[in-house]
Amino acid sequence: MPTRTLGARKRIALVAHDNKKQELIEWALHNKTTLAKHRLYGTGTTGTMIENALDQSVNKFLSGPLGGDQQIGAAIAEGSLDMLIFFWDPMEAQPHDPDIKALLRLASVWNIPIATTRSTADFLMASHLMNEDYDCIIVDFSSYIKRVIGH
């Protein structure tokens, strides 16, 4: 199976819905030392809040509802992001729910680590794989592509 190497210095996207932003900031502060070893990315407001809290540069996309979720999804598909930490609010309907579903789908399609809860994010940060190269298996979709193009 084909693989893609996630480098020792991971490219981590940090995303949070409004009701989860404070929780993500608290989590990021708790993991500040580990996060400092990696490159951080975020959607609009969340990225700015994380950058200010950690005093660490965060590459920012648009706000989620304005296309930031889709930009992160595209970066995942292009292989320029290695991990997604997305504290989403399952109890609140979002105007951009289809974008969120597409983002989570792309992260799964490209087999990158995803955390949607604080405990899962903690487990990812505690993994020895966070600070070393990791060969991520990429599913071979060539037969799917041939089937779709053939129709």
UniProtKB/TrEMBL annotation:
EC class name: lyase
Gene3D superfamilies attached to this UniProt entry: Methylglyoxal synthase-like domain
Similarity-based family: Belongs to the methylglyoxal synthase family.
Function comment: Catalyzes the formation of methylglyoxal from dihydroxyacetone phosphate.
Signal sequence annotation: none
Designated name of the protein: Methylglyoxal synthase
Reaction catalysed by this enzyme: dihydroxyacetone phosphate = methylglyoxal + phosphate
Species name: Pinibacter soli
